[in-house]
Each structure stands twice: as C-alpha cells, then as structure tokens.
Design a protein that fits this description.
CATH topology of one domain: Aspartate Aminotransferase, domain 2
Strand order of the largest sheet: 4-12-11-10-7-5-6
Number of strands: 17
Low-confidence stretches: none
Radius of gyration: 21 Å
Structural class: alpha/beta
Shape: globular
Largest sheet: 7 strands, mixed
CATH architecture of one domain: 3-Layer(aba) Sandwich
Distance between the termini: 49 Å
Number of helices: 12
Helix content: 25-40%
Order of helices and strands: EEEHHHEHEHHEHEEEHEEEHHEEHEEEH
Length: 398
C-alpha cells in the first residue's frame, strides 16, 4: 500500500487539532485557531461544552446501543421536546442530514401512496440546493459536479431556478408529490428565500395536494436566531429534515412531520440501526437544554448584528476583496471578489477558520456561544486578511 489509507475524497487543509475550547481549536503544537466554521454549522455550542460533555460522559457509563427493537426513553423525551417546540407531531431520528432527507422524501412519497395517489412521487427542488451525498439526495440537489460518474440520476426530481416560484408552479404535474427547499441555502452561497416566496409555495402545496418539505440541516437549531429558520417567515412545512447543530458535534439528525404527512410511515416501512441511540439522545437533549433556555436565541440575534456591523465596515474598506455580506443570524457569508479560496487561506494564515460555499462565498458559521470579544477579534482578523489581499491586488495591478 502506498500513500494514505483513506479515500482521497477530501481536499483537506494541512491542519490537525488536538483539542477544542469553546470557539477555539488547538493544534498539538499549541497553536490556537478561532473557529468560525463550527465543523460546518455542527458545533452549535462550541467545543467541549461542559453540559454536553457531562451528558455524554454520564450516558457512556450506562448504555450506548440497544437498537430500535426496544423503547429508548431519552429518544421519546427528545421527540416530545422537538414536537412541543415546532410544527411537528412526529419525529424519526437518524445519524445524519442525508438520512433525514431520505426519510423526508420517503415520507412524502408514502403520503401520496396511502392517500390513493401512487403516481405522485416527483419532488420539485431549487437550483443551488445541497441536500446530501446519497444517490437520491444528489439527484435532489441537481448539481452536476456531485452527479457525474455515478450512473443514471435517480428519477423523480425536477429542479427550477432559485426563488423562481412561477417556474415551480409550472413544474407541478400529476406526478408531483412535494416541494423541497432550504429556507437559507448554505452550500448554495447563503441565499435566503423571501417570506413571500415561502408563503406562495405553501399556497401551491395546499392547492395541489403536495407536501412542503424544508431542509433545515444547516440553517436550523438556533443558527439564524430562531429555533428554525422558517419561523422568520411564519410559514410552516409539512415535513422537515434537521441534523448538524442538534447534536452539537455528535452525529445525529431527525425528520419531523405532521401527523397528516407521516400517515404512511407505519411499522416496517422505514428503519435505522443506529438512529436515536442513547448516546445521541443524551447529547441532543443537552443541546436543547441550552438552546431553548430563556434568552439564548435573543442573544444569537444580538451577536449576529454585532458581527454583521463589523463585517459591513470591512466591506466598505475593501470592496475589491469582499462585495457584500449575506445570510441570517450566525449563518453569514462573505461574497468575495477575489477567489474565496484565497480569502479562506488568508484567514487561515491569521488563525481563523471559515467554510467555502457556492457563488464564490465564504461562510462564517461560528458556535452560537461566541462572545462579543471573540466576534471583535474575528472581525479584526478578517479585516487584516482582506487588507493583505487588497494590497496584493494593488501590487499586481502596478
């Protein structure tokens, strides 16, 4: 064997971390990095949060896995808490966002089937979407770079341009089962669906007997300053896929649905070996203890305004490097003029971590517990990075 034993599917940065403390990651050599990537919106409460560590450690000494052949009390408790705090009546726990999306798609198809419309299996999606890496979810996302080389595209997905609700209406046929979208696109470049668009989609679903599915894998669980991003619009879905932040770093996801939408998901039609295991449920409940505490989400909104204001000043100072700030809450994007890879590298040189996205955007997805001081520190390092690239551009032009 030569080279790495791992699949070479990741273009990894030359960095390895030994431990994490809140919003900081520490290398084995002791170098500290301000983590504005949050494991791609996963580390919602930062690294080594004491409440999460305590919950996981306590559960680890009791029970790890029994399978869904038996009752799992903490699973029922977490399900009840999610139902109480959302539109949903039912929850199915998974290990990842892609699995949550698969469950959502199956729920929609099954809903039509049991209601006497088995011909309805197609799902309308929007350009720029990212719904996962399974064969079905790459078909739902529709991006050629993810589809190429994996054989025929899974049938049943019809894509329309981003936020083109007229096109979505025209795409509805006798075979359409549902409409699927991210209220705020993450991978697609921090693009937000306006409230008016979500309301029109809700109306279309009601008119044509379709289910409305929201993918809040990245934008959910407090990331935008509401528990879920769709709450800003006042529009509720029939089905919703979540993951990332709900586990605070532990792999878990969930599919939430109304009773009416989940009517076809009966015993034996869907399952999971690891989903809803005691370890994941202990951590998920601990995450909710913090995020649903009084005032926590208000603080996310306040801190997001502080971050946005600081970043706006950087845009004003270096418009040749960053052209605009996108996003909601602590799910923000720097629309870059220079290649976003260059901006990311410049930040890394200053010990700040960020995440690339489509449309030449660089995502900032810090832990929701980031302090005002850390926000100011991050903005200053972003400003220094932009200054270095601006000077480079000026020197190259001379």
């Amino acid at each position: 064997m030569s080279g790495s034993p791992l699949y070479e599917t990741f273009a990894r940065a030359p960095l390895a971390f030994e431990k994490g403390e809140g919003c900081w990651l520490v290398t084995s050599g002791g170098e500290r990095y301000l983590d504005l990537a949050g494991g791609i919106a996963v580390n919602s409460l930062g690294h080594s949060h004491p409440h999460l560590v305590s919950a996981l450690s306590e559960q680890a000494g009791k029970l790890w896995h029994v399978s869904n052949l038996y009752e799992i009390p903490e699973q029922k408790r977490l399900g009840e808490r999610l139902v109480d705090a959302t539109f949903a009546d039912k929850v199915f726990f998974t290990n990842s966002g892609a699995e949550a999306l698969e469950c959502a798609i199956k729920t929609a198809r099954r809903y039509q089937f049991v209601n006497g419309r088995p011909e309805r299996f197609r799902v309308i999606t929007f350009e720029g979407a990212f719904h996962g890496r399974t064969l079905a979810t790459i078909a739902a996302g529709g991006q050629q770079k993810y589809l190429e080389g994996f054989g025929p595209k899974v049938e049943g997905f019809d894509q329309v341009p981003f936020d083109d609700i007229d096109a979505a209406e025209k795409a509805i046929t006798e075979e359409t089962a549902a409409i699927l979208l991210e209220p705020v696109q993450g991978e697609g470049g921090l693009r937000t669906f306006p409230a008016a668009s979500l309301k029109r989609l809700r109306e279309l679903c009601e008119k044509h007997g379709l289910l409305l599915i929201f993918d809040e894998v990245q934008c959910g669980v407090g990331r935008t300053g509401k528990f879920f991003a769709h709450e800003w619009s006042g529009v509720t879905p029939d089905v919703m896929a979540i993951a990332k932040g709900i586990g605070g770093g532990f792999p878990m996801g969930a599919c939430l649905a109304t009773d009416a939408a989940a009517v076809g998901m009966t015993a034996g039609v869907h399952g999971t070996t690891f989903g809803g295991n005691p370890l994941a449920m202990a951590v998920g409940n601990a995450v909710l203890d913090v995020i649903l505490a009084d005032g926590f989400l208000d603080e996310v909104t306040r801190k997001s305004l502080l971050l946005k204001q600081g970043l706006a000043a950087v845009v004003d100072e270096f418009p040749d490097v960053i052209s605009e700030i996108r996003g909601v809450g602590l799910m923000l994007g720097l629309k870059c003029v220079v290649p976003n890879t260059k901006m990311s590298a410049a930040l890394r040189d200053r010990h700040v971590l960020a995440v690339g996205a489509g449309d030449n955007v660089l995502r900032l997805l810090p832990p929701l517990i980031i302090s005002d001081e850390e926000i100011r520190e991050g903005v200053e390092r972003i400003r220094e990075s932009a200054a270095s690239l601006s000077q480079t551009s000026a020197a190259a032009a001379e």
